[in-house]
Amino acid sequence: MAKRNKVADALQALGELGMPRAQQNDRSALCLLALLHLTQEKSWTEAKDPLVGITPMMQFARDHYDKQYAPNTRETFRRQTMHQLVSAGIALYNPDNPVRPVNSPKAVCQIEPRALKLLRTFGTAAWLKNLAAYLKNRKTLTARYAMAREMRKLPVKLATGETIRLSPGEHSKLIKAIIEEFAPRFAPGGVLAYAGDTGEKWGHFDKELLSHLGVKVDGHGKMPDVVLFYPERGWLLLVESVTSHGPIDGKRHDELARLFAGSTAGLVYVTAFPSRAVMRRYLGEVAWETEVWVADAPSHLVHFNGARFLGPYV
């Protein structure tokens, strides 16, 4: 019962802190307990503020609360619990190194100091009074952290003159190069329909444009990192940014073909690498009838077979 009661307490705290119903579940409660390093025998007054990664949080749930999570649920922890706790100002991402990418294997989280001070009073006579004072200033606190996160983001200038901002990291740097260097050279006048982000899956998403082109995307399909519409040729360029994961190989080509099967625009498949050194590691995996672009040689394109230098295959 002690294990269940501590999780129940954490659920109550999350609810009273105003977290959305989607984050009022055992996973979020266990993340909060891990952030506070509150094992079942400890009281809330003993809460601490360690730096803890997502995988250690899952191990904490297993070791101290007998809750086993599969390794492939790591992204669920990050996107459906920790992202919201950070947005609410209850937790901090990478406070020891704010420019570290949120999807880095070294990424860590920490309870926010004011939230820690408040939660140490959970279950005491002072809780409700302290909670009211905390909630009164919470919007200001959340806005301040949101502004700090925004300032650390990478600005990307679109052809329209608009600027979008992506989470910091090597992956986003390559996406920036695709939009600012590749697109003007090989799809002049192109329109950015989608750009992924390590912090937010839908970093930039022109749903209306893709819908007009016959593409209906839901949250289940794994989008390419960048989607560009090239009106002059009537093409959709599907670009994968490769910094740590693989290129457009045969399997990924088929996945993208199915995801964009309804497109009235011709599909062009492009793998982008940051350098030729990285490209060499993956050359044996690149699918035929695709293109390869390297950021350190932006004026060149490597064409993998086919009758035309660049274009969709029908």
Protein topology:
Layout: H1 2-16, H2 26-35, H3 54-65, H4 74-87, E1 91-93, E2 109-111, H5 113-119, H6 127-152, E3 154-157, E4 163-166, H7 170-186, E5 191-195, E6 204-205, H8 207-212, E7 226-230, E8 235-241, H9 250-259, E9 266-273, H10 276-282, E10 291-294, E11 301-303
Parallel strand pairs: 8-9, 9-10
Antiparallel strand pairs: 1-2, 3-4, 5-6, 5-7, 7-8, 10-11
Give the C-level CATH assignment of the largest domain.
Answer: Mainly Alpha
Tally of helical runs: 10
Largest sheet: 7 strands, mixed
CATH architecture descriptor text of the largest domain:
Orthogonal Bundle
Radius of gyration: 23 Å
Low-confidence stretches: none
Q: Could you tell me how far the N terminus lies from the C terminus, measured between alpha carbons in angstroms?
A: 63 Å
Query: How many extended strands?
Result: 11
- Placed side by side, the strands forming the largest sheet appear as 6-5-7-8-9-10-11
Q: Which descriptor suits the 3D outline? A: elongated
CATH topology assignment of the largest domain: Arc Repressor Mutant, subunit A
What's the CATH H-level homologous superfamily of the largest domain? BsuBI/PstI restriction endonuclease, N-terminal domain
Number of domains: 2
